[in-house]
Amino acid sequence: MGIDLLAFTGTRVCRATGTGGLVIGDQVDPALLTPLVRGGTGSRSESEEQPEILPDKYESGTCNGVGLAVWRPACAGYGRDRGGRPRTRAGARLGAGRRLRDMDGVTVYGPPDPAACVAVVSCRVAGRRVSEVGLH
Fold it and tell me: Are residue 68 and residue 100 in the same domain, yes or no?
């Protein structure tokens, strides 16, 4: 997808507050990135210096083990309804179908192929604020 850095919160992925992640694209040299916050060396607690190994280099403070423990079961069911069926059908129809993509002033972000869609549709409506679109 040509993404250099992709940051995400656990709150939005699986409701695990206080967690998140950073995906570093292949075209980015991690050695050129410097942490904004240092401390709490975690995996190398005997040292006063931040570890140079990834991902420890960018993980300041104590890991939120309890928050991360919910990731596995939550991600196993991610994109599925309560019956275990994929939730992609409605999102695929809405995002890839004619309903949204063909509307004047609407830009849909994501693949046009319904098989490649997930349950979330990202779009923009020209001349409207996000909060206004979400309200209606």
Answer: no
Helices (H) then strands (E): counts for the chain: 6, 4
Domain that holds residue 26: 5-76
Is pTM beyond 0.90? Reply is: no
- For residue 106, list its beta bridge partners: 125
Q: Are the CB atoms for 39 and 60 separated by under 8 Å?
A: yes
Pair (62, 24) in one structural domain = yes
Using pLDDT thresholds of 50, 70 and 90, give the confidence band for residue 126: very high
- pLDDT the model gives residue 127: 92
Please report whether residue 19 resides in a domain.
Answer: yes
Contact 19, 71 (CB under 8 A): yes
